[in-house]
Design a protein that fits this description.
heterodimer, A: mainly alpha, three-stranded antiparallel sheet, B: 507 residues, mainly alpha, two-stranded antiparallel sheet, 3% strand, globular
Amino acid sequence: MNTLAEATFDSPEIAYGRLYPLLIIFGVAIVGVLVEAFLPRRQRYTAQLVLSLGGLVASLVGVVLVARDLPSHNDGASLGSIEAMGAIAVDGPSLFIWGALLVLSFISVLLFAERQLEGGVTAFAGQAAALPGTEAERQASSQGVEHTEVFPLMMFAIGGMMLFPASNDLLTMFVALEVLSLPLYLLCGLARRRRLISQEAALKYFLLGAFSSAFFLYGTALIYGFAGSVQLADISAAVSARVGSSTLLLTGMGLLAVGLLFKVGAAPFHAWTPDVYQGAPTAVTAFMSACTKIAAFGALLRVFYVGLGSARWDWQPMMWAIAGLTMAIGSVIAITQTDIKRMLAYSSIAHAGFIITGLVGVQQGVNAAEAEITSLQSILFYLVAYGFASIGAFAVVTLVRDAGGETTHLSRWAGLGREAPIVAGVFAFFLLAFAGIPLTSGFTGKWAVFTSAWSGGAWPLVLLAVLMSVVAAFFYVRVIVIMFFSDPVGDGPTVAVPSILTTVTITVGATMTLVLGVMPQPVLDLARQAGEFIR
Amino acid sequence: MSVPWLTILGAAPLLGAVLVMLLPRRSELPKQAAFAISLAVLGLSIALAVEYDVDGGFQFVENYSWIEAFGAHYAVGLDGLGLALVLLTTILTPVVILASWNDADDGRWSTNSFFAWMLGLEGLAIGVFAATDVFLFYVLFEATLIPIYFLIGGFGGARRSYASVKFLLFSLFGGLLMLASVVGLYVVSADSASGPSYLLEDLMAADMSQNTERLLFLGFFIAFAIKAPMWPVHTWLPDAASEATPGTSVLLVSVLDKIGTFGMMRFCLGIFPEASQWATPVVIALAVFSVLYGAVLAIGQNDIRRLIAYTSVSHFGFIVLGIFVMNSQGQAGAALYMFNHGLSTAALFLITGFLITRRGSKMISDFGGVEKSAPVLAGVFLVAGLSSLSLPGLSPFVSEFLVLAGTFTESITAAVIATLGIVLAALYILLMYQRTMTGPVRESTRNLPDLGGREIAAVAPLLALIVGLGFYPKPALDIINPTVDTLLERVGARDPEPTVAVREEAK
């Protein structure tokens, strides 16, 4: 008998019955790559679209089925189970985030697949390898070449996003971070028009993203040095016992925070957001702004509530500062923006700040009163609300065009309200939602995070958030003024008529924004049933 | 289950607004439809008023759980104060629609949207006055900003865009401060035994520490003071009123601004009685200052609409003063003043609107001798003006007298200073009348046409109400008084006993 092999190798036990929503997405991504290799060019678009949408729906059905049958954990204290040898936590919050990601990805895929706006081709570069302005590029565009690889790339990103908040140890989380980031870097550089700025965005995102991943990895190493494990449960135990060196813990915690806060776009790690949001193809921006944010906040919550929950007195002051800074920078700098996509980017920074305000409250099921709203519940709700409004708003941006493609300069939006009252009206509705006017999802979301923050004693932060909301309202209202009350400059913008795909995306976005504003209870209930993280 | 009359009353104008939007453009049909809908709503509200039992507390109550996680309810009901303001809203809307018949015709936006926004505003305002759940109130309170924003920004003078944004940002600032307080109330009620609830009655029963109560009170009070508007947060009103169309100004000043003073009575006094008592000296000082400040600035205005806006600042000073002297005369006067000020300011805005449309200028210096060329216009203008300066026999006199009487028992100094406001009111109204209507006829005003049938029909009901309630205010006071008494009981203030001279030997 070879004792060595016996002692060191256990075959991993994978609970396929609980992980298949995740595996479906990765499977679809791999099949998508094979489609690119083996199907003729003409059939790829349809095949990829059917495959992606089918995969998302199948996975969503899977999420619902898994959620209905969650085992109890810790003697019934919460629902969920730790799978794949302790690498993945399938619990309520994970499943809620998966569901939200899948639904939002579904309407993003529709945006990716839109072909009517560019005259029969998608909004992605015909041949990414061709240098901008060369003969090769002209040839590619005259032949109507498309990159249908965007679909498998997106599926890989979605898979990574699903794994990221569900990771139960820091190494899996790091792998998920890379899996979600790398396809996004590529996607950002694939715009059909204004390719230089798009490639610039991709490069910036890649360099800064790689940098922040390194911070995350270094943080993981230091935490390992402190706790002797990368498992969140072990880290939590070590933090409670305060066994190791607190220097290692604090430094590691800070470095982990850098990596995660970079992904959510919180100040002072927000600098990539405006450039990337502006340069990336708008469909990708829409997808990123909603789904990356959800995934990254899910991971942030898991690391800080589960792994480092006992050290909350150490990280809460840092989060206070970051929440305040993020809100202030996002809201104030947005005022000076003249490009609609950059403005929405700063708005997304400000929203990240509002969400972190909710995180600071640390209002959990155990110490909150029976019917009181918890931090997790409010943040999950906010993420869903923001996701729908954000995808909807960017989808509207793809419609406003002139001869050179999308026209994103604010001055070119003047008089849009008269050109296309419905499109302008819908966009104004999204802006009102971002501003947090009642009867939109933005209001209920803000209310929820502010309440959980105040319950946790962070009322000065709530006051600051309220003030910043006023500042933010100013620039949202400014866009409404430009659209409705200014005279068009020159020819004015034209609004392209989209195919059914983009129409569905905008309709779903606007409807959900209204429904979550008027009747938020079902989603709030769902977020409540998600319960708490397990460890 | 009984018929949800209040919901129908609020929803009818909202559905009507959608209907008006869908009607064909460039015809009289949308206007006629809007007018008919507003008349129907008026009829319904009068029916409710007839059914209303003056001593019955909250009536036409509906209560459903809305967002359980937030403790929010869809809860509506009317007490005397709410009923008075709902009636004011439903009376003014048809009047305004009739008076603004042609105001939106050459605007950038369709006539349909103008009247649809007005109806939408009416529906939301009814909801605000009827809400008995703080969350519902807040939602509707903020939602009223949207129609009024588009009414100011879409239809009006050259600087309307600036005015509408200024208005919106002031209101949002107040609204979001209030949001912070609303969030704080949630935390307070969540700690109580019954769990989170925004129902007015539950919040009244909630225990708060002294500091919490005062902080939360401030959030509400500042929002309402901006809305009302009080000095020093009044600066948005003159801009908005001078740029908007007369009809919009009426809805803004006569209906929406009442939400501010209504909110002070319903929520500041109702939920934070101790903090309201605590704030009384400062609020009274601010109110008295508003009275004088508004009046003095009104005297100096050359723009007719800005002048009326400043008179409103002065009048709102009186209303706030009446509320915070914490006795029954003051508060009954204040509540009645809200109603009367709505009528008299509406008449002033509409009549000067007719005048301004005719001449094409809103500067007092451009007028003169109008009473020769348009005697009916001058006559109704005089009556409306006299009501604004509280001439006895016209309804604002009753309310202003009650407010001052109430103030006198609380603070003689404040009463004496505030009374100066009446003198100044005579000055700004009569000077305006003298400069525009009397004197030699100017070339530019020689051929001003007199009021037409539609215009007379619009202002006649207002003047009739002003005169009627001036001579016989009892019906209005009967509705208001029980509410005021309940409120005062809540605050724990009682009317001071009259001082009776007692002879020494009687002991």
